[in-house]
Structures are given as C-alpha cells and as structure tokens.
Amino acid sequence: MNLSQHPFDTPAANAPLAAVTGATGFIGRHLVAALAQAGWRTRLLLRREPDEPQWRTLRPQVVAGSLGDEAALARLVDGADAVIHVAGLIKAARRAEFFKVNCDATATLARTAQRLAPDAHFVMVSSLAAREPLLSDYAASKRAGEAAVLDVLGPRATVLRPPAVYGPGDRETLIFFQLARWRRVPLLGGPDTHAALIHVNDLSKLIVRLAADCPRGEVLTAADGRPEGYRWDELLGAAARAVGRPEPRFVRAPQSLLKGVALVGDLARALGSASMLNSQKLRELRHADWAVSAEELARPSGWEPRHDIDSGFADAVSWYRSAGWLPR
To answer: Which DSSP letter does residue 230 get?
Structure first.
C-alpha cells in the first residue's frame, strides 16, 4: 500500500514529540507514518524540503541540516520526548567514511540528546550485521556506533538491530523478487544459512512501541514470527510464490560467479566509488547465522508482527508492480 493512502489526524499540541533522523530513507518513511498513527508529533532532520506526499497531511516539524551539522542536531533534539536515530551509511568507498557517519556522528547525536533532551528515550536503529563486526567495515562501524550510544547514554538508550527489512519501497530486497522470476532461481547462500526477516511496517510499529517504553540500556533484535530465520530456498521459494511461480527450480549460484561480481565491487571501491556488492558484502550475505535467539529478541508488550513471509512478500510485490518496479 502506498503510504500516501493512509489517513492521519494532526497530533495534538501536547502529544509526545519524536525527533527522527533518516526520515526520508526506506525505514524512515514508514516510521514517520507509524509515529503519526500512534499519536506522536514528529520533528525531522532533512537535507532538503520534504516531498513525501503523506507528509503534507502529517505536518511534521522540519530541521534543515545533516548529521554533520551540530547546530541542526541541537535544534532537532531540543525538548524531544524520544530521539529515534535511523540514519546511517550503508555503502562507502572507505572504512573511514562508514565510521564518520555510523559511529562519530551517532556519538555526537547522543551527546547532544544527553545535553538538550536528558529525559528522552534514545532509540538507535542499528543492524543485525553489528553482531558480526569482523565481517565488514559497515558491520564494524554499526557496532562502534552502538557502543558509543550506550557509553554516552547508558540506560537512557535502546539499541535495536533489525535483520533484513523488506516491504513497499525497498530497492535492496527487490533483487529477491527479480531472481525469483528466473527459470532457474540461484541460491546465494549455503544450505545451512538461516536469515531472519521483518516487514517494514512491523518494524516501524516495533520502533514506535519501544520509543514509548521505559529505556533500560538494552541491545535488542527485531524479527518476524519466525526468529530462527529462513533458509535461502525458503526465502526465494516464498518470493517465487509472491511473483506467481509456485514451483521454482533452484540452483546453487557458482561461487566463482559471486566472487567475480564481488571483485568488480572491490575494484570500484579501490577507485573511490561506493559499491553495494563487494567482497565484504558477500561475506555478510553468505554468513550462516543471521537467526535471532530468544534472549535478544524484541517483543515489547502490545506488539506482535503482523506479517509472515508469504503475506509480507505478497504485499511487497503488490507495491512493486503498482510502482512499475516488477512486471505484472
């Protein structure tokens, strides 16, 4: 469903205020809508004037600036009841670029919140990749950002690690549905790989629920109703069903092909160009254990995932087709 189809009432002037970074990203756009549905006012850090159709009815407060602008961060968090940090860098040509945004800017935001919104619940939306910081520069930078937030804010913060997030508007998981349309569907990981998933609407409502709870300095992980995760054949089988191919034929993707594609990405990085697929990302992709244990699972009172993999993938495909990203 297109977010602009949701009706919203303007939150009351005395409603709680959430200061949000990353609002124009995939998760952020859905999160702003979920906050409005839950009765929150929002204040958003944006580089440019918002052009999201649904925000014309939401009427969020807007602070012009970026994560590198400390004055803008101060205006963003001042007096907020919750600070929800979603912004982050997912591809970069250099390790230092990842750390500048995902660690250093995150630490600055946490210190600013400590000074100007000392009672606010700081929710950092990290990544499950942070659990394995040796896999990639991205994972290491997210882990360092988590440590910085908890070091500054301690029990006033909650770190949430989403697994693979999918749903309407996401370009990164579109590849699952494109591959699922092939005559032979390539399995990108090993047979014992398990990866947790969550639909973006479920994740957004989880973030809102956590923001409203009393913080305890926890590091939690999000997942749908199957936190033990999915094998690659289960994941791509569900994607195939969603695109109308109920009996796909699977093949193991040749390792030489995957490594060759990754090496092209490595060359691009060496030349100073950010590439999403490279050797580090391939290590993340092929890591065997992206399951979520009961000890780390976020299940706050009043929240349950609505989507299983079949209903969630069907929702994503419906949006992709309506947007022209997948053929009907």
So the answer is: B
Note whether residue 43 is domain-resident. yes
CA dist 181 and 205 (Å) reads 31
Backbone phi, psi, residue 275, to 5°: -125, 135
Q: How far, in Å, are 66, 182, 295, 298 from residue 144 at the CA level?
A: 20, 39, 21, 21
CB 204 within 8 A of CB 31: yes
Q: Domain span at residue 111? A: 3-166+196-227+291-306
Residue 312 lies in a domain: no
Within-domain flag for 184: no
The torsion angles phi and psi of 119, rounded to 5 degrees, stand at -100, 0
- Tens digits of residue pLDDT in 101-140: 999 999 999 999 999 999 999 999 999 999 999 999 999 9
Q: Are 225 and 165 in contact (CB under 8 A)?
A: no
Q: What is the pLDDT of residues 2-15, one digit of tens each?
A: 333 344 456 677 89
- Considering the entire predicted model, what is its pTM? 0.91
SS3 label, residue 39: coil
